[in-house]
Design brief:
The protein is of the alpha/beta class and 307 residues long. The protein is 25% helix and 26% strand. The strands form five sheets. Strands 1, 2, 5, 6, 7, 8 and 19 form a seven-stranded mixed beta sheet that branches. A hairpin with a 4-residue loop joins strand 7 and strand 8. Helix 1 (11-22) packs parallel to helix 2. The structure holds NADPH dihydro-nicotinamide-adenine-dinucleotide phosphate (NDP). NADPH dihydro-nicotinamide-adenine-dinucleotide phosphate is lined by residues 47, 116, 148-154, 156, 173-174, 178, 200, 236-239, 282. NADPH dihydro-nicotinamide-adenine-dinucleotide phosphate (NDP) binds next to helix 5.
């Protein structure tokens, strides 16, 4: 029987593991399919305190992992496929069928990028359609690409791509960005970034080559259709929480985010931290902060039960 299982290895999970390890709770971290989480697909993190010159996302996550391991956190590279939180049981089933029982659990499984859902887009994921410019941008050096979305992620993707490609077109369904002003202004002022307002992607074109050759666009105000020749489409339209294994086991809101009071879930002894329970802030630093809170709450919970 484990004392504490932490599910997820982004800033929330690893900070929870660090605090729990330093409190001698001997936590076991199940790292998930993307160890390190979303920051491992982020080139430069400019807003994590303590790094005035920015830090590469993968490096930041490696250091967080090393820090947690230094104090004794154990990390397994596996994925949780299902959970049983009935009665006194806190049982996790891993993707290979192995089971872990724990006295307390911290869920920090984060969120994943969303796509538009067009059949033509789904067909071309990995062949010109991507949700990660830092992962795939280098394939489009010197070519034309488009970014869909009007949030901070879309701005960051467009700015990152503008260093590599000939031209970036940002396609946004409204006539104003939701992104923070500093990023939006950088995009609007950039010579190699164009913006198409009130526009959605109607179809991703591949002209029998099975790789992206262009987009059919639709102006949502006039209904007018137009074509844009691009070789890459980067989708940056938000995220979906990774809560499938917890459905029916923990209370969730309509979007599938785990409902928390502080970091407590609807099940005693099960806590949640980071993006999996936060549709609002979704920052590395807030995720890390809530990971710390979850570990302190777990420590208190285990202490109250003589653990
Ligand atoms: P957001 O939810 O903030 O933005 C999603 C964007 O995609 C919106 O502009 C939305 O349009 C658009 N969109 C959603 N669905 C569709 C669709 N089906 N078709 C077309 N467009 C669509 O997500 P982000 O990933 O950008 O950001 C998430 C959070 O992370 C935010 O809190 C953000 O501030 C933060 N973040 C901060 C960064 C930083 O500070 N450096 C970097 C990256 C993210 P509409 O505006 O019309 O709703």
């Amino acid at each position: 029987m484990e004392n504490l299982a932490v599910i997820g290895s982004g800033p929330a999970g690893l900070t929870a593991a660090l605090y729990a390890a330093r409190a001698d709770l001997n936590p076991l971290v199940v790292a998930g399919l993307q160890p390190g989480g979303q920051l491992t697909t982020t080139a430069d993190v400019e807003n994590y305190p303590g790094f005035p010159e920015a830090v590469a996302g993968p490096l930041l996550m490696r250091r967080m992992r090393e820090q947690a391991e230094r104090f004794g956190a154990r990390i397994v590279n596996d994925e949780v496929a299902g959970v049983d939180f009935d009665g006194e049981r806190r049982e996790l089933t891993l993707s290979d069928g192995a089971k872990i029982e724990a006295r307390a659990v911290i869920v920090a499984t984060g969120a994943s990028a969303r796509y538009l859902g067009l059949p033509s887009e789904q067909k071309l994921i990995g062949r010109g359609v991507s949700a990660c410019a830092t992962c795939d941008g280098a394939f489009y050096r010197g070519q034309e690409v488009a970014v869909v979305g009007g949030g901070d992620t879309a701005m960051e993707e467009a700015l990152f791509l503008s260093r590599l490609v000939a031209r970036v077109t940002v396609i946004h369904r409204r006539n104003a960005f939701r992104a923070s002003r500093v990023l939006a202004e950088r995009v609007l002022a950039h010579a190699r970034i164009a913006v198409l307002w009130d526009t959605v992607v109607d179809e991703v074109r591949d002209v029998a080559q099975n790789e992206v050759t262009g987009l059919r666009l639709k102006n949502v105000k006039t209904g007018a259709l137009s074509d844009l020749a691009v070789r890459g489409l980067f989708v940056a339209v938000g995220h979906t929480p990774n809560t499938a294994p917890f459905r029916g086991r923990l209370e969730m809101n309509a979007q599938g985010y785990i409902v928390t009071r502080g970091v407590r879930t609807s099940v005693e002894g099960v806590f949640a931290a980071g993006d999996v329970q936060d549709p609002t802030y979704r920052q590395a630093v807030t995720a890390a902060g809530s990971g710390c809170m979850a570990a302190l709450e777990a420590e208190r919970y285990l202490g109250s039960r003589g653990g």
